[in-house]
Amino acid sequence: MPSPIILVHGGAWAIPDAACPAHQQGVERAAAAGWRALERGASSLDAVEEAVAVLEDDDTFDAGRGAFLNRDGRVQLDALIMDGASLKAGGVGCVERILNPVRAARVVLEKSPHIYFVAEGAERFATEHGIPLIDNSELVLQREVERWKSAAEQRYLSVPAEFSGDSHDTVGAVALDVQGNIAAATSTGGTLNKAPGRVGDSSLIGCGCYADNETAAASTTGWGEPMMKLVFAKWATDKVTADVAPAQVAPASIHYLKRRLNGQGGIILLDREGRIGLAHNTPRMAWAWRSQQSSESGLTAPQQ
Ligand code: ASP
C-alpha cells in the first residue's frame, strides 16, 4: 500500500526576508491540513482541496482574499483541481465573488459534464451548488490597494521583472492518497494589474496544473504566459517515468522553461510512488511536504 504524502507551494518569486516567516508558516499549515485529510483516509483530491483552501484563506498569498488587483482594481481569481485516477478536472476563471475558488473548481469536477466555467457563469454554477457568493470588496486588502496604486503609477504591467521584485504568490498542492491515487490543485489571483479577463496558466488544464496516475501530478507558479505556451505542467508530468524521477524532472523542466522562453517560476511534482520533485529559478519559492514518516518546508528548493 502506498504511503500518502502531500506537497504544497506558495509561489515562486523574490520573497523578502521580512515576509519569509509568514510564507513558511502558511505552507506548513496548508501541508498539515492536507495531511490531516490523508491521514483519515480521504482522497488525494480532498487533500489538495483542503490544502489550497487554507492557502486561499491566508492573506499572505496571491489567491483568495489578499490576491492582486487587476487593472480595474478588482480581485479576479482562477483555480483548477484535477484527479489523476479518472483524469476528471474542474476549473473556474475570472471569478470575483467566491472566497475559495478551489472549492468551486471541485464542484465543477464533481457535478458538471463540463470542465471549465468563467466569470458570472462560474459564479452562477457555484451558487447553484451551495457555494455562497460574496462581495468583491471582501477579497480586497488595503495592502493590495497600495500595491496596485503604485503599480498603476509606474504603468506597471505583467512583465518578467515582477518575478524578481514583486509578489508572486500563486498557491498549489499535489497529493498521493492511501488508494494510490494522485491529484493536483492550483489557485491564483494572477498577475498584478492584469487586464480584466486575463487568465494565466494556473487554472488551465496542463499549463499550471495536471494530474495523471500514469505519470505524475504537478502544480506550477510563475510568469504564466510562457508556461501556457509550453503547456508546462503536462510537459513536465509526461517526462516522469519509472526510471526518471520527479526530482530529476523538476529542475529539467525549469531549465526548459528558461531556455525556450526565458520563463521564470517554479514547479512541484509527485508520482504514485510518492517520489517528489521541486524546483524554481526565482530567488525563492515557499514549499512544504508532509508524510507519515516526516515533514519538511523551506523557501528554496533543496538540492536533489
Ligand atoms: N502563474 C500565475 C499567473 O500567471 C502567477 C503566479 O504563479 O504567481 O497567473
Account of the 3D structure:
The chain has helices at 20-39, 44-57, 101-111, 119-128, 142-153, 162-165, 224-229, 232-239, 246-261, and strands spanning 5-13, 77-83, 89-95, 116-118, 171-176, 182-188, 209-211, 217-222, 265-270, 276-280, 284-291, 295-298. The longest helix is centred in the first third of the chain and has 20 residues, at 20-39. With 304 residues, it is an alpha+beta fold. A hairpin with a 5-residue loop joins strand 9 (265-270) and strand 10. The protein has one domain: (Glycosyl)asparaginase (Glutamine Phosphoribosylpyrophosphate, subunit 1, domain 1, 4-Layer Sandwich). The strands form two sheets. An eight-stranded mixed beta sheet has the order 4-3-2-6-5-1-11-12. Strands 7-8-9-10 form a four-stranded antiparallel beta sheet, covered by helices on one side. The protein has nine helices and twelve strands. Helix 2 runs antiparallel to helix 3 (101-111) and helix 8 runs antiparallel to helix 9 (246-261). Helix content is 33%, strand content 23%. It is globular and about 50 Å long.
Q: Order of SSEs, N→C? A: EHHEEHEHHHEEEEHHHEEEE
The separation of the N and C termini measures 25 Å
Query: How are the strands of the largest sheet arranged?
Result: 4-3-2-6-5-1-11-12
Count of runs of 4 or more consecutive helical residues: 9
Sheet with the most strands, sense and barrel status: 8 strands, mixed
- CATH evolutionary superfamily: (Glycosyl)asparaginase
Find the structural class using helix and strand composition: alpha+beta
Query: Which molecules other than protein and nucleic acid are bound?
Result: aspartic acid
